[in-house]
Specification:
The protein has 171 residues and is mainly alpha-helical. It is built from 9 helices and no strands.
């Protein structure tokens, strides 16, 4: 796939159309895991990470929490591993958008559980070191609004911000 970079964008658009057209068939026929493998491969490269997150966001927007529950920890692990390995401004903006979609679609608790499964307190670390600092730099206005809604959910919709270590982030 990476040998033919000119085809990657078209392939991602094809997969997105396929998922949107018949989402139930993708799951029924066991094709979701290979598509998540494509996401994993795309995110690993700086040249195609935005396409991987675009594909992931389509998946997240299409499937419900029950379908995504088995994959959420692995998805978050891939995203955080890439952030630690090669943090770029483009990747951070796309990552914030993707994490915001997770918060809005599946709830704050889902993201916190997935991040804390990797490392205890990772959500607080991500909020303090990346999320709060980088949201103003998100370029696309729609993405910035989605990030703002997700931050409002994190701050208000749960008791998360009333406990340590999160309480100090909002003061």
């Amino acid at each position: 796939m990476s040998d033919r970079r000119g085809y990657v964008r078209g392939m991602v658009l094809y997969l997105e159309s396929y998922i949107k057209k018949d989402a139930k068939a993708v799951v029924r026929d066991g094709r979701l895991e290979p598509i998540l493998g494509v996401f994993n491969k795309l995110v690993a490269s700086k040249a195609t990470d935005h396409l991987g997150i675009q594909l992931l966001c389509t998946i997240l927007e299409t499937y419900d929490a029950a379908t995504m529950a088995t994959y959420m920890n692995a998805i978050v692990r891939v995203l955080v591993t890439r952030l630690q390995a090669a943090k770029t401004p483009k990747y951070v903006q796309n990552l914030l958008y993707c994490l915001s979609v997770i918060v809005i679609r599946f709830g704050v608790e889902t993201l916190v559980k997935s991040l804390d499964a990797l490392q205890q307190g990772l959500m607080a670390m991500l909020l303090s070191q990346v999320w709060i600092n980088e949201v103003p730099s998100v370029i696309r206005p729609t993405d910035r609004r989605i990030c703002a809604v997700a931050m409002a959910d994190i701050a208000c919709a749960t008791d998360l911000c009333r406990t340590e270590p999160y309480m100090s982030l909002w003061s």
